[in-house]
Design goal:
177 residues, alpha+beta, Protein Transport Mog1p, Chain A
């Protein structure tokens, strides 16, 4: 009799787990920051209240701005995209997307391929995040240079813990296909 009750309890628990599992994706999708319609960022999708059924960020194994934004939000950062034309940075062949993270500044360079990024990095002093011998182009703080797959990022902060958190979030690897 006790075994039967335990088996019934297990069956009921399994059924409850199945029901929870089937409702979890909708709950997670509704609560997560997802990419909006083509060309919009995760931040814009979240602010506009985009539908959870909106297209997801491309799953190519390479970084895209929506995947960077999602990773930062998942890592506990409060990010805000800086509006306006991004600055051209010496040594980088692509324009950055610029964000503020509290009092810190993040510039994210997304390259079409890892090879294109490698060509630029070969001409950059990663300690100063600028071409060797160039004047420091960063307005404040020493830069933290981060590289992962087709992404390069320059993080300007006076908080070493925050710099480490950002580095770990971005170097954990590009989103998998």
């Amino acid at each position: 009799m006790l075994i039967c009750t335990a088996a019934t309890g297990c069956t009921r628990a399994a059924s409850d787990d199945t029901a929870k599992a089937s409702s979890t994706p909708a709950t997670v999708a509704a609560g997560s920051v997802a990419a909006g319609p083509a060309g919009t960022s995760a931040i814009a999708a979240a602010k506009s209240g985009a539908s959870p059924a909106a297209p997801a960020c491309p799953r190519t194994g390479q970084w895209a701005l929506c995947s960077v934004e999602r990773r930062l939000v998942q890592s506990g950062f409060v990010i805000r995209r800086v509006e306006g034309a991004p600055p051209r940075r010496a040594g980088f062949s692509v324009l950055p997307a610029v964000y503020t993270l509290g009092r810190s500044r993040l510039e994210v360079f997304i390259y079409p391929s890892e090879a294109t990024l490698a060509a630029d990095v070969a001409k950059i002093d990663t300690v100063s995040a600028a071409p060797p011998g160039a004047k420091n182009p960063w307005p404040f703080f020493s830069p933290t240079f981060v590289r992962s797959a087709n992404l390069a990022a320059v993080f300007l902060t006076d908080n070493p813990t925050q710099a480490e958190r950002l580095t770990l979030a971005l170097t954990a690897g590009a989103p998998q296909p």
